[in-house]
Amino acid sequence: QVQLVESGGGFVQAGGSLRLSCAASGSFFSINIMGWYRQAPGKQRDLVAIIGRGGNTKYADSVKGRFSVSRDNAKNTVYLQMNSLNGGEKGVYYCYAEGPGGFWGQGDQVTVSS
């Protein structure tokens, strides 16, 4: 099993920035894909950004150029730098790790105010 713990969420004004972190622990040798999904109230959970162990990334179109996903393989930690935030980025951000059936964190709330 893999446990994922997110941190770094909170309140931010429109145009501001936040940096999310997710640390993986538990029984595993290595993780290929890690990343972030967002779920707004009443909506489905959608991909924000993912990154492979080798550094390949994929972003939702809405965040390209503003968000950056990175990882530290030695620490089994993935990050999401979020810049120029707007109301569309409000929601609960869930860390994801690839594995048998996939693994999810508990979620971290991000609130954008204007």
Give the topology, please.
Elements (H helix, E strand, L loop, with lengths): L1 E6 L2 E4 L4 E9 L7 E6 L5 E7 L5 E3 L7 E6 L4 E6 L8 E7 L5 E2 L3 E6 L1
Parallel strand pairs: 2-11
Antiparallel strand pairs: 1-3, 3-8, 4-5, 4-9, 5-6, 7-8, 9-10, 9-11
Walk me through this protein's architecture.
The mean pLDDT is about 95. With about 110 residues, the protein is mainly β. A hairpin with a 5-residue loop joins strand 9 and strand 10 (about 105). Strands 2, 4, 5, 6, 9, 10 and 11 form a seven-stranded mixed beta sheet that branches. The chain is built from no helices and eleven strands.
What would the keywords be for this entry?
single chain, 114 residues, mainly beta, four-stranded antiparallel β-sheet, 0% helix, globular
Rg, nearest Å: 13 Å
* Individual helix count: 0
Residue runs with pLDDT of under 50 for 5 or more positions: none
One letter per element, helices H and strands E, the order comes to EEEEEEEEEEE
Please give a quick description of this structure:
By secondary structure, the protein is mainly beta. It has strands at 2-7, 10-13, 18-26, 34-39, 45-51, 57-59, 67-72, 77-82, 91-97, 103-104, 108-113. The mean pLDDT is 96.
